[in-house]
Amino acid sequence: MNRSPLNGRRIRLGMVGGGEGAYIGGIHRFAARLDDQYELVAGAFDVDAERGHRFATQNYIAPERSYSDYATMAQFEAARADGIDVVAICTPNFTHFPIAKTFLEAGIDVICEKPLTTTLQDAEALAEVVSQTGRFLGVTYTYSGYPLIVEARARVQAGLIGKVRTVQVEYPLEWMATGVELKNNQQAAWRVDPQKNGRGGSIGDIGTHAYHLAGYVTGLKAESVAADLATFVEGRALDDNAHVLIRYEGGARGMLWSSQVAIGCSNALRLRVYGETGSLTWAQEQPNELIYTSLEGYTQIIKRGRDDLDAITRARTRTPPGHPEGYIEAFTNLYSGFAAALRARDEQRAISGIGALIPQIHDGLKGVAFVDAVVDSHQQGTVWKQPKYR
Ligand code: NAD
Q1: From the alpha carbon of 91, which atom of ligand 1 is closest?
Q2: What torsion, rounded to 10 degrees, do the Cα atoms 52, 58, 60, 63 define?
Q3: What does the pLDDT read at residue 312?
Q4: Which of 75, 161, 288, 314 could be joined to 304 by an S-S link, Cβ 3.0–4.6 Å?
Q5: Beta strands 253-259 and 241-248: pairing type?
Q6: 10 secondary structure, DSSP code
Q7: 143-317+356-379 belongs to which CATH class?
Q8: Any bridge partners for residue 3, and if so which?
């Protein structure tokens, strides 16, 4: 593989999955375009090759770079002088491992959806491949891309709320409150199948987002977890609701709730962090505001877009306060962070700025280890379990 330097050009992106009727692939494409860092030039967009080729045509992909399967794509793209630099994996969880491994071994960097893999064994094997190949693997923990999440992180680190005592994080959704998987819902169908989703249901799908967010903002590492999982919709083999207690190193305590059956909750991810001298609250449905309350009893709304925010927060912001930014921009911040990291590596510079805070292989590994510990805890009677990686 002989690639021209990334300096002075867009990064060539390929995509696996994300075809017709798929959800997250479209968000990846928006995110890749918004800051103009990437061009999408190749793909194996669908498990159904015919549909994938149709989708490629509609998205102006050259016919010879629309592939019937990901293995052929990796082989041919690796052999082209103008082949893709990085591939985005936007497929169901059980396919992440073989697809990521194939591209990394072909010398192509990877942006992978969460959860990284369906088993801890696969996550460990993938970490080994990353280390052996020296390639980059970024994980799309979307919510760490929000500017005010970076701001919260910076303020916790600066000691604004003092030593953290408790972390309350919740990610409730309502879309699986009934058996939608039996009604041709493509997204739900594979999420209720342990072979395809992994051992954790809601905890793997969205609990991993919440877990990452809590650790990202506070810098705390989970020492042990105790979990109570429930399946409310009959016939499901996986949890659709999870409550998890977390003991963090250093004594802080956490509580995490993930649910796919919480009626009234569209995408109600919320994080509250309480320290010795204050607290911070952020909610995904009002992402342009971060609420700070001091021990003295005053409450301040910190607004995205202000000039006095942390430099990395400002680097992740595009419009002044009052012009809302949201989900697509947060996802873009991850993509632009990945681009910054890839360019830094290419130029043998240390990663800094927006590229420094991106989720990578170890974050993916920690997410899978968390799910494993949670499911073990529940199955053994809500006992305390140590995640293998933290
Ligand atoms: P989906 O079912 O909507 O789409 C999956 C796509 O992958 C489809 O186009 C399907 O044809 C394709 N596909 C499956 N196997 C393939 C293969 N072997 N080769 C090529 N294409 C293949 O799923 P989704 O809801 O978009 O979820 C996909 C992934 O994204 C999951 O891992 C999920 O956890 C993750 N996700 C992440 C976020 C986030 O916020 N980061 C949000 C939603 C989903």
Answers
A1: 7
A2: 40
A3: 87
A4: 288
A5: antiparallel
A6: P
A7: alpha beta
A8: none
Report how far residue 92's alpha carbon sits from residue 198's, in angstroms, rounded to the nearest whole number: 10
The DSSP secondary-structure symbol of 204 reads: I
- From the number of C-beta atoms within 10 Å of its C-beta (0-12, 13-18, 19+), residue 85 rates as buried
Tell me the residue type at 133.
T
Query: Nearest 5°: CA angle at 190, between 189 and 195?
Result: 140
Q: How far is the CA of 130 from the centre of ligand 1 (A)?
A: 22
The candidate with the shortest Cα–Cα distance to 148, out of 305, 355, 327, is 305
| Beta carbons within 8 Å of 93's beta carbon, 6+ residues apart | 113, 115, 117, 118, 190, 196, 197, 198, 204
Residues of the chain with CATH 3.30.360.10: 143-317+356-379
C-alpha 93 – ligand 1 centre gap (Å): 7
Average pLDDT, consecutive stretches of 10 residues, N- to C-terminus, the chain (390 residues):
87 98 98 98 98 98 98 98 98 98 98 98 98 98 97 97 98 98 96 97 98 98 98 98 98 98 98 98 98 97 93 91 95 97 94 88 98 98 97
Q: How far apart are CA 18 and CA 40, in angstroms?
A: 12
Ligand 1 pocket, CB under 6 A: 16-19, 22-24, 44, 46-47, 70, 90-93, 95, 113-114, 140, 142, 186-187, 205
Mutation pick for ligand 1 pocket among 24, 93, 112, 269 (CB with most ligand atoms within 8 Å): 24
Quote the CA–CA distance of 220 and 249 in Å, as a whole number. Answer: 7
Residue 266 identity: S
Kindly give the distance from the C-alpha atom of residue 110 to the centroid of ligand 1, in angstroms, as a whole number: 15
> What superfamily would CATH give domain 11-139?
NAD(P)-binding Rossmann-like Domain (3.40.50.720)
Contact 107, 1 (CB under 8 A): yes
Q: What is the pLDDT of residue 356?
A: 85
Tell me the residue ranges of DSSP E strands in 91-233: 109-112, 137-139, 164-172, 222-230
CB hemisphere CA count around 151 (13 angstroms): 27
Distance 386 CA to ligand 1 centre (A): 29
Q: Phi and psi at residue 166, in whole multiples of 5°?
A: -135, 150
Residues of the chain with CATH 3.40.50.720: 11-139
Of 190, 185, 172, which is closest to residue 240 (Cα–Cα)?
172
